[in-house]
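Hey, I was hoping to borrow your eyes for a little while. No rush at all, and the record is pasted right below.
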Amino acid sequence: MYEVIYYEENNESPVVIFISEKPPKEQAKILREIDLLEQFGLTLGMPHIRKLVNSELWELRVRLGSNIFRILFKDMNNKYLLLHGFQKKTDKVPKTEINVALRRLENYMER
């Protein structure tokens, strides 16, 4: 088993908030993928996870019907820091979403 850590700011986790705002079926699917990451780590591989090009971040890839969700995370020696969740609407992960995750990572590392 690997450890999953939810990034927090102001005693709230943006990823938990993101998940809680989804309908129950979508919540279940996202949480199942997080469970798989916790169980298998980076060996999970595609189509569940993928390293972002030119970045230290990974994406947890979740699809339910036509809805596509991503949770960006950092591998910290087999501990996975979940930084940012969003619904994907374009082919590439938007730079703005990556920047949110990187800002949160920087904030986490400073603490």
